[in-house]
Amino acid sequence: PVVHHLKDYQTPQFDIVSVFLEFDLKPENTNVTNVMQVKNLNHASLMQLDGEDLELKSILIDGVDITQKCEQTAETLQIPTAGLDTFELNITTSVDPQGNTALEGLYRTSGNYCTQCEAEGFRKITYFLDRPDVLTLFTTKIIADKADNSVLLSNGNLIESGELENNRHYAVWQDPFKKPCYLFALVAGNLECVQDTYRTLDNRDIDLRIYVEPKNIDKCDHAMASLIKSMKWDEERFGLIYDLDIYMIVAVDDFNMGAMENKGLNVFNSKFVLAKPETATDVDYEGIEAVIGHEYFHNWTGNRVTCRDWFQLTLKEGLTVFRDQEFTADMLSPAVKRIEDVKRLRSNQFPEDAGPMSHPIQPQSYIEMNNFYTMTVYEKGAEVVRLYHSLLGEDGFRKGMDLYFERHDGQAVTVEDFRNAMADANNVDLVQMHQWYLQSGTPVLSVKTEYDSVTKKLIVNCSQNIPKLADKFPPLLMPIKIALYSDDGNILPLHPYEGDMEKIVVKGHEAILKLSHKSESFVFEKIEVEPVVSLLRGFSAPVILEYDQSNEDLAKLVTFDSDSFVRWESIQTLALKEITRNIAQLESGQALELSNEFTTAFEGVLKDSSLDNALRALALTLPEMTYIGEQYQQVNVDAVYHVHRWLKIQLATKYEGLFLEQYLQLNKLNEEYHYQKTDIANRKLKNVCLQYLMLLPHQIKLGEQQFNHSQNMTDVLAALDSLSHTDSLEREACLESFYRKWKDDALVLDKWFALQAASHHIHSLAHVKELVKHPDFVYTNPNRVRSVLGVFGRLNMLGFHQPDGEGYHFLAEQIMKLDAINPQVSARIVAPFTHWQHFDGERQTLMKKALQSILDNDNLSKDTYEIVSKSLS
Ligand code: HT7
Ligand code: ZN
């Protein structure tokens, strides 16, 4: 397969000034007529267009048929253009939407037509310069049967519609903004919409519409409310106002990712639109708000200013994730949001960055671009944007954003352009920041503090390192937030040593240490007593922090740190120490034991009713097994699972009374479901208590009761989740009743599949094998596939890693089956295999064998090939 390199980038030879597309929609052969007004910028003699899986009908230049003079390969079309400076190119092709199970290009979902063009799907619709730096004015005419397609949508504004012969009709849409073809969209089908209006800051009324299948019309309120909140937030926080007169969202069931920000016509996975309390959990509600926000924010960061090439993906995605994180933080709780984001980063991005697929946020090469929509490009990319925010402050960051739009509106640009805007707007040099874009691997930040009780000085010695590179890397610029406390919890005033003033920025009682060398010291003066150090506050840089802090200091920070992240981190560190110490005990054949240091801190949080319940819930939740595994070069799966479970049971037993008291108190509270901060926090804490209690066999009834009596999906699912890990009659009865109730609601049924795929039940692998034979399991629906195969590989520690390799064998077979249907999804399901080096000896062999069996497949897609071959090399 062809490898694409950033270093090979060349500017386009042609400009497609405008395009008129006409779609004559038919399920198995849709004719696409594509009329482009082209400028030959460099007097090139050949124009090479991208195109895949297209049936070519004809090619005309300025009205003359030149079909015979053009050359066609599987992925290109070459057109002679010698002597032509501007010309009209008219290409007619035909595609098969019904047979398109890869869900890229034009395809059918639940009988409706829909498109997905990012990254390189437009070339599956028509021949084009399918690259993000070719910006074009689009006009789209859609013709279709009226009976099956009451709604005909595309980007921009509707400029014409009418009736045609044979019960067909048409609509013409025109987008006044130039855009790259990856932002093109078309939707047609029998859909209904909910409508609202948003009045912008500059007093224009925007028509807001959410299109769904008629049966889902009662599940759109939260999505609409989220859209309105997003529009308002972007005006207030960034001064960014919506630009078209209409904003449409369409929810579809078959979708490869979460959603797509096509100009004026977002297409969404229905999972991120549809919600009502009986069917959606708090996590679903939060996901909808975040994804609606994310796609809306792309209108400026992605659409108005787009990427020059796909190596710049983090320019739009890292920045837009940062923006959606800030939005959610403002809508709910900044502290909770930050902790949840750090958890996600550590559990998913850190492992990616430690494995064979590790890449910088700006990858330097790819085989299949779809494989680079990764946690690294998105989430680590957002952390890098956050670094600018921390270094420049809110005002400085806003100045940088304003300059970025002033300079680049309507352009396709690079990550350097973003950095230059940030630097120039603030008159600072940020060149060193570029290293974050080039460097893969999670940096390790080692800190040692020395207090001198005579001079009253505290020296903070910092050094940075990327283990796999030893010393061979240019240092990164890292803002390290710090505060100092007295023993009894008073925050101390900070006086940096005069020679360090440039690199220590003090704001109130917090300082930012600007680490820019491999090793550097920062000195604070006039510290009267040895302080308790609160370090890396707010997780101010995406690093692994090595700081040997005593258990006493950690316990103090748990009780008094004003930074919620450090407070949470401190109890997590205590828990992690507890778990790793006991894993060592288990491995050396010694008895496991619970330490007072940890339980005292744990009990403190459990009893501390002054603390926000959502933060309590987070603090009482043990580190995830994947994160525990990350602490080891080679992880002993069985020991991690065993000790993790053992610790939970110990805590449940020791604090049964407290858990029950807290549970019963919270269970009385929220009768009616509201998606609001305190209610969410209460449900969260209540269900954490339930999780512990359900580890005690005599409390299983409590879960059954909650399952049977709750009216909202958050509580029903929490109960069923805990039940699913038990070996009980209650488990079977509740799973059965849930299925009967929800078998016709695809999104709810996905939850039923996912719970069983993640279950720690002793026969879970056998259950999962049954699940793929279930009549409701379909390989063509990505959500269903992810619910079973994705969840199994990622979360079912015991089943997937079964010592005889049967879990690996099963998943490898499933991947090969799926690859022929939907390569994009199949390539993602492979991910858990790629970490094979991280497991013990025999498992490594078995995982590699499974990977090899996939690679031996003759017809493997380039998507799956890239991941499998890179992880074996
Ligand atoms: N910009 C989008 C990325 C994307 C995508 C979305 C749906 C289906 C396939 C896709 N490939 C790439 C989503 C986003 O980040 O907003
Ligand atoms: Zn995005």
From TrEMBL:
It is an enzyme of class 3 (hydrolase). Its cofactor is Zn(2+). Residues 223-436 form the Peptidase M1 membrane alanine aminopeptidase domain. Residues 552-872 form the Peptidase M1 alanyl aminopeptidase C-terminal domain. GO terms for molecular function: alanyl aminopeptidase activity. It catalyses: Release of an N-terminal amino acid, Xaa-|-Yaa- from a peptide, amide or arylamide. Xaa is preferably Ala, but may be most amino acids including Pro (slow action). When a terminal hydrophobic residue is followed by a prolyl residue, the two may be released as an intact Xaa-Pro dipeptide. It holds the Pfam family DUF3458_C. Residues 441-548 form the Peptidase M1 alanyl aminopeptidase Ig-like fold domain. PANTHER family: PUROMYCIN-SENSITIVE AMINOPEPTIDASE. Belongs to the peptidase M1 family. This is Aminopeptidase N. It comes from Thiomicrorhabdus lithotrophica.
